[in-house]
Amino acid sequence: MTMRHDPDLERLAKPIRKRNATEEEICRIVGRPAQIEHIGEHIASKIFDITLARSAAQEGIDGVFASGPLEGASVNIKWYAKDEGLIDLSMGVVPDYYLVLAGPRAGAKPSRGGTRPWLIRSVYLLEGPSLHKALEARGIKVGIATSVLRVLWWDTEIFPEPRGTLLPPSAKQRRLLALFG
Hints:
Elements: H1 7-30, H2 36-48, E1 50-52, E2 63-65, E3 74-80, E4 86-87, E5 97-102, E6 122-127, H3 128-137, E7 146-147, H4 150-156, E8 157-159, H5 171-178
Parallel strand pairs: 3-5
Antiparallel strand pairs: 1-2, 2-3, 4-7, 5-6, 6-8
């Protein structure tokens, strides 16, 4: 088989090299691989004063709130590029809270040709045990990509609209979150 020149691959190689360089810079900042979940944990830890667990592989709990009204409470941090009403839940360890950073609301259109930029448009704080009980009561299986009713998201939103009262963000926290919008 004769290999032919493929300009699409040459065009693709250039942005991949740029992305790799960007990922190396991000890794130097966060101290973990440049994956959205690790970066989200880093951002949330800085904005909400969360002490992260030493191991990123710890099941169900990413850290604990170090100060404020939730001081000492465990938290599992998620960052989703799209706000699709889904959350990955641990079937074993249930944290006190789930802190979810979410990008733009997902539309009904297909993903082909679309992008998933890493943006923070909304932040939600859900009580872990209450969420698990509510899902069980409705017969919803807990696990990866667990569907959560939109009303639960609405009631627990703390940014940009502070509907949830557990952790209303300060002006400084709102400004820092807006950096990623």
